[in-house]
Amino acid sequence: MHENEDSALYDLLVVGSANADLVIGVDRRPAPGETVLGSDLAVHPGGKGANQAVAAARLGARTALLARVGDDAHGRLLLESQQAAGVDTGGVLVGGAPTGVALITVDPSGDNSIVVSPGANARLTPQDIRAAAALFGAARVVSVQLEIPLETVAETARALAPGTRLVLNPSPPAPLPEDVLTACDPLVVNEHEARYILGILGDDTAGAAPEDWARTLLTHGPRSVVVTLGAAGALVADSRTGDCVRVPSPEVDAVDTTGAGDAFTAALAWRLGLGEELAAAAAFAVRVGAAAVTGQGAQASFPTVAEVAAL
Ligand code: ADP
To answer: Which residue has the CA at smallest separation from atom 26 of ligand 1?
Structure first.
C-alpha cells in the first residue's frame, strides 16, 4: 500500500477553485447594448474545487480544501458550505482579490451563458502550494482541476508527498506540461476534454472511439486515464495492467447534470485513496455521478453514501 497511509489525516486534499454562482433566468439573452429583465437572483456555492471537496465530504471522506476566496460575502458563503459538508477549511486562504464569480443566465430551454471572473482563484499561487506542505504530507490523494493558474497546478504536482496519488481533471481544458501529465493517476476527462487534449498533443480523434482516446492519452505519460461518458458511465484505462474497461452507469432520470463530473471525480479520488482498484473506484463513482444528476444544482445534488446505496 502506500507510504504515508498511517499518517494520512485526509483521504482527499482538493486543490482548486471556489466560485459563487450567480444565476438569473431570462426569456432570452440581451443583444449587445440591450437590457433584459430576468428572474430573482439565485446565489449558489460552486467552482470545481469547492464542488469536489463538498462531494467527497458528503460521502464521508476526510477532506481538506486548498483554495483562495475573497474577504467578502461570497467567500463566507463558500466557507460555510464547505464547513456544513464537513470539509476542513484550514487551508482556504482569504483575501487578495474578490471571490471568484460565475455570472450565469439560463434561458427557457435550459441553455446557460456564463461569464467567469476568476478573482481570488487567479491569485492561488505556487507559493501558496509550497506553504501548504503540511496538508500535502497528510493526504492520501490530491485532486486538482484547471480553474486555478497552470503554474499552481504544476507546483501541486511537484508538491506531492511520496506515495500520494494525483487525480487531475483538466477543466477548462488547457495545454498541460509534460511533468503534470506524467504525474496523473488518473487523468480524468470528459469527451470534450479528451478531444481537446489529444488535439493539442497532435493526435487525430476523428473516427476514434473512447477506448482509442484512453490508450492514446496513456502514451503521453499518465499512469491511468478515465474518460467519463455522461449517461453511458465511464471508461478506465491503466498502464500498469494494460486494462481498458467500460464501467456502465445506472439508469436514472436526469434532472440537472451540473456538477456531475465533479461528484464523479471526487468519489473516484476518495475510493482510490482507500486502496480500491481503478475499475472498482469508477464503478462507485458512476453511481455517485448518476445520483448527482437526479437533483437540481451542483453541491445541493451531491449524495451521501446511503443515497448512493439506495440508487
Ligand atoms: P461532465 O459533467 O464533466 O461533462 P460527463 O457528462 O461525462 O462529464 O458526466 C460525468 C459523470 O456523471 C458520468 O461519468 C456519469 O457517472 C454521471 N452522469 C452524467 N450524466 C449522466 C446521466 N444522464 N445519467 C447518469 N449518469 C450521468
So the answer is: 290
Predicted confidence at residue 4, as pLDDT, reads 46
Comparing 5-9, 19-23, 30-34, 175-179, the range with the smallest average pLDDT is 5-9
CA 7 / ligand 1 centre spacing (Å)? 34
Instruction: Pull the grid cell for residue 135.
Output: 496538508
Q: Would the pLDDT of 269 be above 60?
A: yes
Q: How confident is the model at residue 6, as a pLDDT?
A: 53
Nearest CA to ligand 1 atom 20: 230
- Ligand 1 contacts CB of residue 232 (under 6 A): no
> Which is more confidently placed, 296 or 126?
126
Cα 230 to Cα 255, 263, 298, distances in angstroms: 13, 12, 15
Q: Where are the domains of the chain?
A: 5-28+40-309
Element (H, E) at 67: strand 63-69
Instruction: Please say whether the beta carbons of 259 and 298 come within 8 A.
Output: yes
Distance 94 CA to ligand 1 centre (A): 32
Q: With bands split at pLDDT 50, 70 and 90, how would you rate the model's confidence at 265? A: very high
Q: Which ligand 1 atom is the nearest neighbour of the CA of 258? A: 2
Is 262 labeled as catalytic in the residue annotation? yes
* Domain 5-28+40-309: assigned CATH number: 3.40.1190.20
Share of the chain above pLDDT 70, in %: 98
Q: Which long-range contacts (CB under 8 A, 24 or more apart) does 302-310 make?
A: 302/51, 302/54, 302/55, 302/58, 302/59, 302/259, 302/263, 303/58, 303/59, 303/263, 304/58, 304/59, 304/60, 305/59, 305/60, 308/59, 308/284
Cβ–ligand 1 distance for 156 under 6 Å, the answer no
